[in-house]
Known about the structure:
alpha/beta; six-stranded mixed β-sheet; four-stranded antiparallel β-sheet; 39% helix; binds magnesium ion
Amino acid sequence: MIRFSKVNKWYGDYHALADVTEQVGKGEVVVVCGPSGSGKSTLIRTVNRLEEIQGGQIFLEGKDVHDKSVDINRFRTQVGFVFQQFNLFPHMSALDNVCLAPVKVTGKSKAAAREKGMQLLDRVGLAHKAEAYPQQLSGGQQQRVAIARALAMEPPVMLFDEPTSALDPEMVGEVLNVMRSLARDGMTMMCVTHEMNFAREVSNRVWFMDQGRLVETGKPDAFFTNPQSERAKRFLSDLRSH
Length: 242
Ligand code: ADP
Ligand code: MG
């Protein structure tokens, strides 16, 4: 579904991604982990071209996403992306946030978009909040609306960049539960997260990054019980001591 081939990225002189070569299969759930600054956000942001790359290629369903002929704005709306900050439009209801892209970008009728939007809000447990504005919702609820909004474009993959890191602890579970149910339904997902229980229970594979490199990948059980690299061993032991 997603294939990284010798991907290289620089921020000026800084080599932020170095020769990343890996693939995410259809229906696979990959958790990307690694120390702060290792390139996790940069990597997933390259998939929907929030970041350009200077070397290599990235294919999504066989299409080169960094090809010059790709219409970036349209393309971006078609790859689901959920950030740490919920960034809903504050002046629009939950339902209007969810319906916006299908109406504006794909020209769906308002009625059809609202019907689908209600189904999606129901799926994330928020049908009863359809008319609420973001500031009337908790952080966990806003993040679930953000997931519904991303799903409204029927993306082939969903990318998550620390979707629970800005939440109060009691709200983390409700967002992870929505992600877990998406995984169960076969969604292809790349998730940057520090939620190692989620990684263990839900992911098919863990990718460990350090200094812009994909240092190792493995099934979660193997990665957590028997990491191969010294760097991953240190990372996991630091996590456990917190
Ligand atoms: P992570 O998500 O793993 O914490 P990032 O992908 O955000 O790491 O960042 C990787 C490295 O690239 C860091 O050293 C960061 O400072 C640097 N970096 C990220 N974004 C930019 C930018 N827009 N300009 C310059 N350097 C950046
Ligand atoms: Mg990051």
